[in-house]
Design brief:
Blueprint lengths: L4 H4 L25 E13 L5 E11 L3 E2 L2 E8 L2 E8 L3 E2 L5 E4 L7 E3 L1 E10 L6 E4 L16 E9 L2 E9 L4 E8 L6 E7 L3 E11 L2 E8 L9 H14 L2 E7 L3 H4 L8 H4 L8 E2 L14
Antiparallel strand pairs: 1-2, 2-9, 3-4, 4-5, 6-7, 7-8, 9-10, 11-12, 12-13, 13-14, 15-16, 16-17, 17-18
Length: 292
């Protein structure tokens, strides 16, 4: 059987240049010029029409983040978007994605972009863009999303679409749940994992009448005064943090979210199953004399 040309070779179906920023939610408050730093990490599902939907993470950044000897980042607030500024002398900007605020003895980062989600409908075979749904953008709506919404994952369970996203705020990363009847119009259900966690993926179906999901807890390795102590911290966290783990629940909180003022006890109490995968890690420890 002859394969279509787009399958035989690499084919970029959607790129940063395909995003029309006149539709960006950041236009509500941000007058400075911006650009698309990345259009990546999409969630994917098949719509009732048979077409495919990519929910694309759009990372939008200031065209000139540094001016007047200050570095700026974008933040959502209730009335729209704004920018915060730090003196260039007070930060480390070696990483183009973030800047490290030097006043703290532990990592405190600012983002050089803010992400929102753009639904892009593809042909059934994924070979061409059918429509970019700017009217269905998913963007920050609450303080736990003040620095953006990232990395959507979409699952189809019992006739309904469920999307999980990583939400970024000054407090933490958290995982938020959305639902849709048609795969295009998504409603926020609330936080489903309220701790440092990313990239939650719901299984499409139940196992022994329980909902299951893969999760990715986060870890920050900080410099310690004692080399041996750093080794102990690393191995203590290796099993609990640098891993992909399995979460399960017999009830709806796993997919429907929990009220924002509640601790996610339904997922914290004995809900993490056996280690599914430990990610390869290269650890470089540098001796130092800083204390937390």
């Amino acid at each position: 059987m002859k394969l279509p040309e787009y399958i035989k070779s690499d084919h970029l179906i959607f790129t940063p240049d395909d995003v029309d920023l006149t539709h960006s939610p950041l236009r509500n408050g941000i007058a400075q010029p911006t650009y698309v730093l990345g259009a990546f990490n999409p969630g994917l599902c098949r719509l009732p029409s048979g077409n495919l939907l990519m929910m694309v993470r759009v990372a939008e950044a200031l065209s000139s983040a540094v001016h007047e000897d200050k570095v700026h980042c974008i933040r959502w607030e209730k009335d729209g978007y704004t920018t915060d500024a730090w003196a260039v002398s007070d930060v480390n900007t070696d990483d183009p994605r973030t800047f490290n605020i030097l006043a703290y003895k532990f990592p405190v980062l600012g983002l050089t972009s803010l992400s929102w989600l753009l639904p892009v409908e593809l042909a059934a075979d994924g070979s061409a863009i059918k429509k970019i749904h700017y009217d269905k953008i998913v963007s920050p709506q609450s303080s736990n999303q003040e620095y953006g919404i990232e990395d959507p994952r979409i699952s189809f369970i019992d006739g309904k679409y469920y999307m999980t996203t990583c939400c970024v705020s000054s407090e933490r990363h958290s995982t938020m749940s959305y639902s849709s009847d048609d795969g295009l119009h998504y409603s926020c259900l609330g936080i489903v994992l309220d701790h440092q966690n990313k990239d939650m993926l719901l299984f499409e179906g139940k196992i022994n009448n329980q909902y299951y999901a893969l999760t990715r807890p986060l870890m920050v390795l900080v410099e310690e005064e004692c080399f041996t102590k750093s080794i102990l911290i690393f191995f203590t966290n290796l099993i609990t943090a640098l891993s992909i783990r399995v979460a399960n629940s017999t009830s709806s909180p796993l997919i429907n979210g929990l009220a924002s003022d509640k601790v996610c006890s339904a997922l914290h109490d004995h809900q993490f199953g056996p280690l599914a995968l430990v990610l390869p890690v290269l650890l470089i420890l540098l001796p130092g004399n800083k204390k937390l």
